Amino acid sequence: MKSHTIRVLFSGVPLVFALAGGAMAGQASKVKAPPLPPGSNLVQVDAGVTPEEVSRQKRAHKHSKLEKKDYTRDDSLDAPPAPKNPKPKKTK
């Protein structure tokens, strides 16, 4: 008798979860987007970066040596050779 009661209870569990899920889905469908702020219809959005932002980024990230640098090329070969024996300065 006990196993029959347990089987009946567990057979109704998926139905309970299905009903609860349907109820939660019904509640979620009633949510609306928030209203737009006042004056939002007067704003015209331009795509891309503004010239002010470009100049600000240039000032903020000023790395002239790294600009347009070719990272695929070995730049250690560009260094001038070190002097072999520098001549001492003449003193009077």
Largest sheet: none
Low-confidence stretches: none
User: Could you tell me how far the N terminus lies from the C terminus, measured between alpha carbons in angstroms?
Assistant: 119 Å
Task: Estimate the global geometry from the Cα principal axes.
Answer: elongated
Mean model confidence by pLDDT = 75
Strand percentage: under 5%
Number of helices: 2
Helix content: 40-55%
Can you tell me about this structure?
With 92 residues, the protein is an all-alpha fold. It is built from 2 helices and no strands. It has helices at 2-28, 51-60. It is elongated and about 115 Å long. The protein starts with a helix and ends in a 32-residue tail after the last helix. The mean pLDDT is 75.
Features:
0% strand; 92 residues; single chain; 2 helices; mainly alpha
Give the gist of this structure.
With 92 residues, the chain is mainly α. Helix content is 40%, strand content 0%.
List the helices and strands and how they pair.
Layout: H1 2-28, H2 51-60
